[in-house]
Amino acid sequence: MAEVLVYVDHVDGAVRKPTLELLTLARRIGEPVAVALGAGADATAAVLAEHGAVKVLTADAPEFTEYLVVPKVDALQAAYEAVSPAAVLVPSSAEGKEIAARLAVRIGSGIITDAIDLEAGDEGPVATQSAFAASFTTKSRVSKGTPVITVKPNSAPVEAAPAAGAVEALAVTFGALATGTKVTARTPRESTGRPELTEAAIVVSGGRGVNGAENFHIIEELADSLGAAVGASRAAVDAGWYPHSNQVGQTGKSVSPQLYIASGISGAIQHRAGMQTSKTIVAINKDAEAPIFDLVDYGVVGDLFAVVPQLTGEIKARKG
Amino acid sequence: MSLRIVVCVKYVPDATGDRQFTEDLTVNRDDVDGLLSELDEYAVEQALQIADEADDAEITVLTVGPEDAKDALRKALSMGADKAIHVEDDDLHGSDVMGTSLVLAKAIEKAGYDLVITGMASTDGTMGVLPAILAERLGVPQVTLLSEVKVEDGTVTGRRDGDTASEQLEASLPALVSVTDQSGEARYPSFKGIMAAKKKPVESWDLSDLDLESDEVGLEGSWTAVDSAAQRPARTAGTIVKDEGEGGKQLAEFLAGQKFI
Ligand SMILES: Cc1cc2nc3c(=O)[nH]c(=O)nc-3n(C[C@H](O)[C@H](O)[C@H](O)COP(=O)(O)OP(=O)(O)OC[C@H]3O[C@@H](n4cnc5c(N)ncnc54)[C@H](O)[C@@H]3O)c2cc1C
Ligand SMILES: Nc1ncnc2c1ncn2[C@@H]1O[C@H](COP(=O)(O)O)[C@@H](O)[C@H]1O
């Protein structure tokens, strides 16, 4: 059976959920061979094996953290050459897309980004994508070279599928470009203790209607009652009420949770682009004409300062 | 020595219009008004600020696109760029990111550059991978997704706010930079700027000017194939209630029914 390379996104050995989803998709088209780079790479093997990786290729070198993107491309290319896979799958993070794109040019392959589903097809893997702020669904293929495909979080279930997951050291030689962009400082983002926005099953977002940073606790309390991540519209971010890393939309994060709750958000096309594929959508807005209501499964026309705290209270009461 | 900046700008269908695919499954660029991609205005803005700081700089804006894409160049010129290059050729229709990046790389090399600046993504394709591909093709450092950028003594530095960390980056020129919409509000063209833009040079190049063959680009040279495009079914109309004091409770009832509580 053909091998499929899966690029592993992990933090010091802790594998992030989208990578496990990639393993599910990889198994539909072949045998997953994982590539894990950097500190803790070896520690990823157990979890990857549980989810179907037949092999885990690992490499660690200071270049991976001291320089931007290119050393990782060199390593992924080395894995590609060692394995000759039928496809290469990479998580659709900002960095993942850059790594995938540069690999694709180097190996003379076409690239598909932000797939939301993947199936085997007669002419190679078929990727589903959404276009134009998710108003269209397209099916595409890579027609030249080995398909390189990046996949969005929440595109497939995480499935247990025990496999060998044998760790093998990957030999990597860095090219001249690898040290081109130096990372001179790195400030890790402080953890809020809430789920990662793109991976969360539930996202609770606030917009301009929240009317001030000091009111965002209303949104956070609702999120916490549901174990959800917190999102924000660009209007709320631009006003400085919430960090840009929480922005949902075209120039923020794209989310596809089971449940999306929008409060005080009008539903502009650029916001919809980042949340329209959510399974269930709920909105609270005092304007009955707000375009967000065109998307909702359930909408409440009302003042969020009354509705949201009542909802939070009711959820807490029901959860006991 | 003068700092030569090339800014890549894209002409895109208006996102607030009714965007559609054509029969050959390429983006329909005829029936929706086009404009300079808003995300590329940030690239033009940063180019202008970098040029202001430099002793001597020249900003060239470059686009690959149909006849109407000249509008995007005019807008960038009216914001303050010095000159423009329009790569236009019938054979470019249907190019994917590999084709477009090949054309851009050839044009950038022909124009001559110390610094290439792009937007973070185009508002129609929204792939956001062209900057990385362009850096790979040009063989220069990529300093991408910057929310802050500065050029001094042949070195570009900037801040990249990523998912897990905020990073400070540094590279020597020549280099490629992409900037996000957090990099600072783009200026509006002044009346004077709009008048001046009319006299600024716009060069037109086609594939033969770039020594490219028609089968390297366009639908034919595309390395990906779109097999189908279907309009997403409209979401089934949901329940909308007016809050009469019980809105939060009603919503909780709905969420419980859906097993979210
Ligand atoms: C290139 C580009 C990229 C963009 N990218 C993004 C992006 O990534 N994400 C994004 O979100 N936007 C993005 N935008 C901006 C987008 O166009 C909208 O401006 C933005 O989404 C509006 O945010 P909002 O809905 O919070 O604010 P508004 O549109 O002002 O809506 C606020 C809503 O709150 C309601 N409201 C007010 N008070 C209350 C109350 N007390 N109770 C209940 N409801 C209340 C109002 O009725 C209104 O509907 C982008 C724009 C451009 C041009
Ligand atoms: N046809 C084009 N002409 C000029 N620049 C482009 C073109 N397409 C994309 N770009 C540049 O590449 C960036 C990212 O584009 P993309 O990868 O298509 O999302 C844009 O912000 C532009 O700066």
Care to describe what's here?
The complex is a heterodimer of chains A (320) and B (261). Chain A is of the alpha/beta class and 320 residues long. Chain A has 9 helices and 18 strands. In chain A, the strands form 4 sheets. Chain A has a 7-stranded parallel β-sheet with strand order 7-11-6-1-4-5-12. A 5-stranded parallel β-sheet of chain A has the order 15-14-16-17-18. A 3-stranded antiparallel β-sheet of chain A has the order 8-9-10. In chain A, helix 4 packs across helix 5 and helix 6 runs parallel beside helix 9. Chain A is elongated and about 60 Å long. With 261 residues, chain B is α/β, with parallel strands linked by helices. Chain B has one domain: 3-Layer(aba) Sandwich (Rossmann fold). Chain B has a 9-stranded mixed β-sheet, sandwiched between helices. Chain B has a two-stranded antiparallel ribbon with strand order 2-3. In chain B, helix 2 packs across helix 5 and helix 3 packs across helix 4. The model of chain B has no long low-confidence stretch (mean pLDDT 93). At the A-B interface, helix 5, strand 7, strand 9, strand 10 and strand 13 of A face helix 3, helix 4, strand 7, strand 8 and strand 9 of B. The structure holds flavin-adenine dinucleotide and adenosine monophosphate.
Estimated share of beta-strand residues of chain A: 25-35%
The counted number of beta strands of chain B is 13
> Average pLDDT of chain A, to the nearest integer?
96
The unreliable regions of chain A are: none
The average pLDDT value of chain B, as a whole number, equals: 93
The domain tally of chain B reads: 1
Main β-sheet description of chain A:
7 strands, parallel
Helix content percent band of chain A: 25-40%
| Main β-sheet, spatial strand arrangement of chain B | 9-8-7-10-6-1-4-5-11
Total strand count of chain A, please?
18
CATH C-level label of chain B: Alpha Beta
Can you give the helix content of chain B as a percent range?
25-40%
Terminus-to-terminus distance of chain B? 66 Å
| Structural class computed from helices and strand pairing of chain A | alpha/beta
- Overall, the morphology of chain A is elongated
GO molecular function (chain B): electron transfer activity
Cofactor (chain B): AMP; FAD
Keywords (chain B): Electron transport, Transport
Protein name (chain B): Electron transfer flavoprotein subunit beta
